[in-house]
Automatic annotation (TrEMBL):
Name of the protein in its database record: Large ribosomal subunit protein uL1
PROSITE patterns: RIBOSOMAL_L1
The family this protein is said to belong to: Belongs to the universal ribosomal protein uL1 family.
Organism this protein belongs to: Bifidobacterium choerinum
SUBUNIT field: Part of the 50S ribosomal subunit.
This protein's encoding gene: rplA
Length: 229
């Protein structure tokens, strides 16, 4: 059994495991827990009543958080010619074409988000085994395969969050830093939760969100009542 720190144990003791909290209560509880000497990332995990093996139940999307993520993402763009120049001017951190595809194929992964122009996808597509498991594969549905690289880069830099359900039906996303006000965190959480609910597949019957947890980097998860989301 893993041994937890004194701070973690103290935080865990504040959580009533016989209770399901509202998102607002969970966020307030996290903010009341013992602090660390860095700004923790706040995250959520939702268990969805979907079968990701079915194409119509593979829930994925993106949201521009109203209060940002609290971090500046390092953006890589696969583009060439004028679009490469446009991406650099928009604030992309890494821009390239064939040589950059090779670098990533060989293990270069020092970036947080990936954008690609449609003409590059023939070559970027073979990076699926590298980028896919990390949730970094460009996709038209999330606006990361586009000719409008300026908008894509600025959206990501401004606090855009992508999400995708995994093979077990879990959907996780970050929605801010613990230093944010409780109101800002709640607004960010609601923005993503509302989009996830909007994307509910028509073939799903019964309760859609069956379990939910909100946590921070060094804190135990706080169970959230799915009915309150």
């Amino acid at each position: 059994m893993a041994k937890h720190s004194k701070k973690y144990r103290e935080a865990a003791e504040r959580i009533d495991r016989n209770n399901l909290y509202t998102p607002e209560e969970a966020i307030a509880l996290l903010k009341s827990m013992p602090s660390y000497n860095f700004d923790q990332t706040v995250e959520a995990v939702l268990r969805l009543n979907v079968d990701p093996r079915k194409a119509d139940q593979l829930v994925r999307g993106s949201v521009n958080l109203p209060n940002g993520t609290g971090k500046t993402a390092k953006v890589l763009v696969f583009a060439r010619g004028p679009k490469a120049t446009e991406a650099l001017e928009a604030g992309a951190d890494i821009v390239g074409d064939d040589d950059l595809v090779e670098q990533v194929a060989n293990g270069f992964l020092d970036f947080d988000s990936v954008v690609a122009t449609p003409d590059m996808m023939g070559k970027v597509g073979r990076l699926g085994r590298v980028l896919g498991p990390r949730g970094l594969m460009p996709n038209p549905k999330t606006g990361t395969v586009t000719m409008d690289v300026t908008k894509a880069v600025k959206d990501i830099k401004g606090g855009k969050v992508d999400f995708r359900v995994d093979k077990n039906g879990n959907l996780s996303f970050l929605f801010g830093k613990l230093s944010f006000t409780a109101e800002a965190l709640d607004e960010n959480f609601r923005a993503i939760a509302d989009e996830v609910k909007r994307l509910k597949p028509s073939t799903v019957k019964g309760r859609y969100i069956t379990k939910a947890t909100i946590t921070a980097t060094m804190e135990p998860g706080v169970p959230v009542d799915p009915a309150s989301i």
